[in-house]
Specification:
Bound molecules: adenosine-5'-diphosphate
Radius of gyration: 24 Å
Number of strands: 20
Structural class: alpha+beta
Number of helices: 9
Distance between the termini: 32 Å
Strand order of the largest sheet: 6-7-8-3-9-10
Largest sheet: 6 strands, mixed
């Protein structure tokens, strides 16, 4: 049986705003689930309903198969880390971290060991005697994470916990949280608008948009098998390139180059005369002409050398796309290039409902 079950969960705020629509999810014990999507899509609202901080307007939330809608946060056994770190200002880092265990009535030796271990994992050992106001934003957020982590709870909830950290700290904390999750095995739900965090940390990702779940899957599934244009564009950096085009005589035309859709092995009979969206990932291309690929020509507008790769901004007539190439192959700005999109890396989507065409 699933550990956590969300059945047709809806949230309608008192002002009538319908923030979450028919959210369904089953979570296994120990899973690390990430809710991802643009700001305002309903991630925090869903998390807060799971935490017991927000009423569930409609639907059922089950813990271990038992209805938990009416339970408060404590009964549900949740610990939550928020975006803003609400620490006790008059208490040292040590006491802030220890507080939850003290409430649970744990003995001093146990608390001491746990606090020191948590502080070590979070790089806070040297700061245990300090007050929160003598810490940087990043350090305070670590204390907040430590405080939540140290308690023995069934469900660990995090709402954008890294958003106040700088880029480097975020990368470090990302792998630290993953490591901590591996050690503690706590069932975790993590909210972020950042697809990189979702991809690097999650066992499974829930992609949301406008209050609706778009897709639930492993990072791999979302990357290789997105169900629609939104997910395809949201997962991956730089995002997938999309080109709108019309099917004519079983072919599409992109920047004067024709592609026979039969060669992609997709059934497109019903799309004759209709608009479809042609998609390819920046990193899926090869420079030059290749077999079993759609070969296109483009002009280079701009290049961004990032070290491990270069983003190449190209134009093909009035079409703008981005390619990701090896930095050694960085083309000259204003030069003309030829590149190939392997047939197996081509995505096609319905032009109207934007769902993937298999
Ligand atoms: P996210 O976490 O994905 O950024 P939220 O869950 O915070 O999104 O918000 C989802 C939507 O619900 C937003 O449009 C937001 O403005 C709205 N919302 C959030 N809280 C309330 C509230 N208390 N009353 C009315 N609308 C709200």
């Amino acid at each position: 049986m699933a550990y956590l079950t969300l059945k047709n969960i809806n949230k309608i705020y008192p002002n009538g705003y319908h923030a979450v629509h028919n959210f369904n999810l089953e979570m296994e014990r120990g899973e690390f689930i990430v809710f991802v999507g643009p700001s305002g899509c309903g991630k925090s609202t869903t998390l807060r309903m799971i935490a017991g901080l927000e009423d569930i307007s409609n639907g059922e939330f089950l813990i271990d198969g038992k209805r938990a809608n009416e339970q408060g946060p404590r009964e549900r056994g949740v610990a939550m880390v928020f975006q803003s770190y609400a620490l006790y200002p008059q208490m040292s880092v040590y006491d802030n971290i220890a507080f939850g265990l003290e409430l649970q009535g744990a003995d001093d030796d146990y608390i001491d060991e746990k606090v020191r271990n948590t502080a070590r994992i979070l790089g806070l050992t040297d700061y245990l005697d300090r007050l929160p106001r003598a810490l940087s934003g990043g350090q305070r957020q670590r204390v907040a994470i430590g405080r939540a982590l140290i308690r023995k709870v069934g469900i660990f909830l995090m709402d954008e916990p890294l958003s106040n950290l700088d880029a480097k700290q975020r990368v470090t904390m990302r792998s630290e949280i993953t490591q901590i999750h591996r050690e503690t095995g706590a069932t975790t739900i993590y909210v972020t608008h950042d697809q990189t965090e979702a991809m690097t940390m999650a066992d499974r990702i829930v992609v949301m948009k406008d209050g609706y779940v778009q897709q639930v899957g492993t990072p791999r599934e979302l990357y290789f098998n997105p169900v629609n244009v939104f997910v395809a564009g949201f997962i991956g950096e730089p995002p997938m390139n999309f080109i709108r085009t019309r099917v004519q005589g079983g072919k599409i035309d992109i920047a004067g180059k024709s592609l026979d859709l039969n060669r992609l092995g997709k059934k497109l009979g019903t799309y004759e005369g209709k608009e479809i969206v042609f998609g390819f990932r920046p990193e899926a291309i090869r420079l030059g002409e290749q077999e079993k690929a759609f070969v296109l020509s483009a002009s280079v507008e701009l290049t961004e050398m990032l070290g491990d790769n270069t983003n190449v901004y190209i134009t093909m007539g009035d079409i703008h796309s981005i390619l990701k190439v090896d930095p050694h192959d960085t083309p000259e700005v204003d030069s003309d290039i030829v590149f190939s999109i392997p047939f197996e890396s081509v995505y096609l989507f319905d032009g109207e409902n934007e769902m993937v065409i298999d």
